[in-house]
Amino acid sequence: LSAVIRTEEQERQRFAKELHDGLGPLLSVIKMLLSGFEEKNSPEVNDKIKGNLKQAVDEAITSVREISANISPHILNNFGLRDATESFIRKLRPAEGISINFKTNIDNRRFIYNVEVIMYRVICELINNTLRHANASKISIDLQLQGDVLYLEYEDNGMGFDVKQAESDGGMGLSNMQYRLNSGNGDIKISSESGRGMIARAFIKCK
Fold first, then answer.
1. Strand 138-146 to strand 99-104: parallel, antiparallel, or no bridges (unpaired)?
2. Which end of the chain, N or C, is surrounded by fewer C-beta atoms within 10 Å?
3. What's the pTM?
4. Which secondary-structure segment (H or E) carries 120?
5. Closest of 160, 173, 74 to residue 122, by C-alpha
């Protein structure tokens, strides 16, 4: 009975992480796109926002299906880590006040499922945290493959926060990111100061 209870609790925690890390960023994108839809915009801008909004909603629906069926994210299966990240970022471009610079050397290289989904979730969670909490205008994402290790450096120019306090509060998905990366023989370190934005450095082994 104890083993069954532990297993059920682990499954609940896993689904909670998938819902938080998978749907959370998409719902933030939808909210931001809706806030950017205004009558004062040109018809072209609003049409672009509507198109991206429809795509984000479709991906949210797909994500729910994938979580319920316990399968990997559709966008990663079809396009890989680079294209999935670029697709997520493109949805944010119509949102006013956010500039996102993404560079990588992985090109179209594919990695094993765990590596792709873990790093993708971490990137989405970091972006989601910036959108929700940082009041930033710039995000920089640098994803580099060196040997058998995939390195991520993420930076925003937001208001910053107390890292130790955030970790102790268990908020901002920090424990989820740490848990995911540790499960893939990786890690993440976050540094931030009030008024000076934040920098997150993460890595995961590809083999």
1. parallel
2. N
3. 0.68
4. helix 113-129
5. 173
CA distances from 185 to 135, 137, 195, 204 (A): 32, 32, 32, 6
Per the structure, the complete domain to which residue 49 belongs is given by 2-205
Domain count, the chain: 1
Q: How far apart are CA 17 and CA 91, in angstroms?
A: 23
pLDDT tens, 90-112?
Answer: 877 656 578 999 999 999 999 99
pLDDT band at 69 (very low <50, low <70, confident <90, very high): very low
| 33-42, 48-57, 195-204: least confident range | 33-42
Look up residue 73 and give its two tokens: 């994210």
d(CA 66, CA 53): 20
CA distance 13 to 1: 18
CA distance 98 to 4: 46
**Rounded Cα distance, 11 and 72, in Å:** 16
Domain holding 94: CATH number?
A: 3.30.565.10
* Cβ atoms 37, 46 nearer than 8 A: yes
Pair 199, 174: CB distance under 8 Å: no
Beta bridge partners of 140: 101, 155
Instruction: Provide the pLDDT for residue 7.
Output: 54
